[in-house]
Structure prediction request, 300 residues.
Amino acid sequence: MLVVAALGGNALLQRGQPLTAENQRANARRAAQSLAAIVRAGHRLVVTHGNGPQIGLLALQGAAYKPDEAYPLDVLGSQTVGMIGYIIEQELENALDHDRPVATLLTQILVDAKDPAFARPTKFIGPVYDRDEAHARAEAAGWSIAQDGDKWRRVVPSPIPQEIPDLGVLRLLLDQGVVVICSGGGGIPVLRLEDGSLTGIEAVIDKDAASALLARELGADALLLLTDVPAVMRDFGTDRQRAIGDITPEETMELDLPDGSMGPKVAAAADFATGGGMGGIGRLDEAAEILEGRAGTRIA
Prediction:
C-alpha cells in the first residue's frame, strides 16, 4: 500500500516540553521507529508533519529585527521544514539501517487569495502566554491572538489547500522507491499570479487538510493522522467517553468534536475516506497497528 503518515506536533515536541534541539531529536527518533515498521511491512511511505511551535519560535526570533527586515511566514515555514525534515530524515534512515533512500522535499501548496481565512486568522502558532502578556505582545507586534485552553497564543490565517504544484516531483521520488518527507507544516503557502508565476503568502496551512489533499492526489491507500491519543472518543470529556474503532465518513458528521484539536483531524480523514481510502487516527507509536485495524480509529 501507499501510506501517507501525518505526524502531529507531539511527534517533535510533547506537551509541556521545552522547544530544544535535543527534545526534538529524541522525539523524532521515537517517531522514526514507528514509521520504519510500516516500511518494513512492505508499504510505500510518505511522511508529513506539523511545525506550529517551530514557526512560532522563528517568528519570535524575527521580532528582534527591524519591522522591514523580518522574514514573512512563508519563508519562516520553509526554514522549519528544512530543519524538521532533516531530523526526521536522518532518524528514519537510521531506523531503516540505511537500506532505503529517504528524502525531504520543500513542498509548495497553492491557496486562494480570496479565501475568507485571510480575514479570520485561526491557526495557532508559537508559545502560549498569559492573557496580559499575549495582549501586550499583540499590540506591540500587530498580531492577532486567541485563547487556547487557559492560555493565549498568536493566530494566523489558515487557508484551504487547493493544489500541489510539486506533485510531479513527489511521484518521481515514489517511483524510485524513496521514502518521502514532504508538505511539512501543511506546505509552503503560495498564490498563482496572473502571469502563472508563484509567490509566497503570509499564512500557515492546516497540516491535516494538506495531508488529506496530498493523499488524494497521490492515490494513497491510507492516511494516518498520528497524535498522542489512542483514538477518537465518543462523548469526549464525559463519564460515557469511549473509543471509536470503525466508523464511516457519514457517521463522523454526527460527532461533537473540539474545533481546535480532534475536529480538524476527523474532518480531514473523513474527507480522504470518501474517495475510497482509509483514514486512521491514533497514537504515533501504534501506526502499524492502526493500519492493520488493531488500534486507533479507522474511517472508511
Observations:
- The first helix runs from residue 21 to 40.
- The two ends are 15 Å apart (CA to CA).
